[in-house]
């Protein structure tokens, strides 16, 4: 008779029924633990100083290989990890979006019974941005809230030489592409008329705000507008006087509908920051009255994905009767 396993029907190959331990799987029993504290100074707002150490609470000599610390940082600012003392190889990994970890590589380190490694003071580590921007560490997975006195921290992970966990819990879903774990760029866009008293000129100013947790780069702010029936837009368009943050251009998208594109191809917009760009002008060839109607407003990322707003169709835009640029501020949200 073929060998069987209760509840699993007939097994053609019993070897395939043996459990396999995937990389990162926890070993039992837990014999090493991590103690951690945040040593950042009271007025040191641009640096995190995690200090942690390995504790062997058993009567046996134990071994470990690597220690991982999971944290959150803006990838556009290029976080840095420095180990001041004692020196040990460290690698930095981006896990997607603003999710990171750094890994200390101890080789195959032995820890004596009832002792701490590397010492009771732990590794002296600094995490900061390359431009020394403000660094908030309390939203880091491994940071915990232990300040001053080292406390046991189960979110700093210890691995053996085969990559199996012998202490700690990895950040949930750190290897997945789930948007709940790996943030996507987010932002809003608004505009106003820089010269509402000029009825024959269109001088829009756009404002983009980063509402996400990762930086925006190489993004587009776009406005759709129309010219009156039987009229023509003056070319070249727009007249560009001073646009230090973007490159402005306009093109006809069909009928009497045009699209103004402000391409922020060099300006990086960090979380919670805003950028405003204007100093451009549009007018008709005969300088007659411009109705200044905007029928669509959109913010796009570098891949053309719409982060905010909605692209209008030509027919929709030509028949649009909503708010116009004579209102000081108007934003249109994506439906």
What attributes does this structure have?
335 residues, mainly beta, Immunoglobulin-like, 2 domains, seven-stranded antiparallel β-sheet, five-stranded antiparallel β-sheet, 1 helix, 22 strands, 39% strand, disordered N terminus
Describe this structure in a few short sentences.
The chain is mainly β and 335 residues long. It has one helix at 314-318, and strands at residues 32-38, 47-48, 50-56, 62-72, 79-85, 90-96, 99-111, 115-117, 123-129, 151-152, 156-159, 165-167, 187-193, 204-210, 219-226, 239-240, 247-254, 257-264, 274-277, 280-281, 294-300, 306-309. Strands 1, 2, 3, 5, 8, 9 and 10 form a seven-stranded antiparallel sheet that branches.
Uncertain regions: pLDDT < 50 for 5+ in a row?
Answer: 1-23, 175-182, 324-335
Report the C-alpha radius of gyration, rounded: 29 Å
Number of helices: 1
Oligomerization category of the chains in this entry:
single chain
Largest sheet properties? 7 strands, antiparallel
Provide mean pLDDT, rounded: 81
Overall outline: elongated
DSSP, total strands = 22
What share of residues are in beta strands?
Answer: 35-45%
Assigned CATH class of the largest domain: Mainly Beta
Integer count of domains: 2
Euclidean distance between termini CA atoms: 63 Å
Q: Write down the secondary-structure element order.
A: EEEEEEEEEEEEEEEEEEEEEEH
Helix-and-strand structural type: mainly beta
What is the level-2 CATH architecture name of the largest domain? Sandwich
